[in-house]
Amino acid sequence: MKNTQRLSLGALLLAVMLVLGYLESLIPLTGMPGVKPGLSNCVLMLSLGWLGGGMTLALMAGKVLLSGLLFGSPFSMLYALAGGLCSLGFMMALRKIPGISFFGLGMAGGAAHNLAQVLLAMLLLPWLFTQEEMKTAFHYYDRVTTHDSSLSMAAFSAVASRIGETDKAYRYFRETARLDLDDAHGNTRDGLHMANMAGTWVCMTAGFGGMQLHGDQVSFAPILPDQLKGYGFRAMVRGRLLQVHVDREGPVYTLVEGQPITIIDRGRPLTLTR
Prior knowledge:
The protein is an alpha+beta fold. 55% of the residues lie in helices and 15% in strands.
């Protein structure tokens, strides 16, 4: 297929996905909040067979961006991107298996899509889940996830930190940090995994540092894995530059720039001034 034909077919498939995505948003599914038929994902599966992984990845990103701008919100775009990347990576790996059916591929992709969104919700909105719910979900997905997506290990590390699985949190952090150094996916020659590099920062801040935002309030619940002597990071919060350092003696918070701010340190309010 010529490049112009591939681009034309890709544009057509993208338009079909946007229409199907809008139509499925109009279908009421009583009793199943957040569940959708996933009609537009069927088009992605066809694209995977017709156009290959690279073009399908571009179509998925375009669909997430345009759907979010037209019908959604920044949060819906984030959830859709996480689910789409995990699902697409999983299907690209499984389609190499001889004899796998179209329906089997779709079911596996749907499960991977759900996996990514559940973990992302636990990472970004932890106050909506009990500790027991987070542990149950993490242990289930930890057993079945193949981590074909370069982005999944960072999320697993951060959630593992939240539920006290410190050794697993460090192991996933190390694999995230060394992904390109060790060429773990065998494709570093094609370029660095930049989003995965950002995931290393997520492991450190949202994971080990326990940093989370709830409204205007920022809170920390630091842990220190046995494999580390200490760590530190900076974060810009509401116009204030904060520096966090954690070692065996505990956390130290410093207001580097900006007006005084009150943070929450392991459940206790703490006001930082310069």
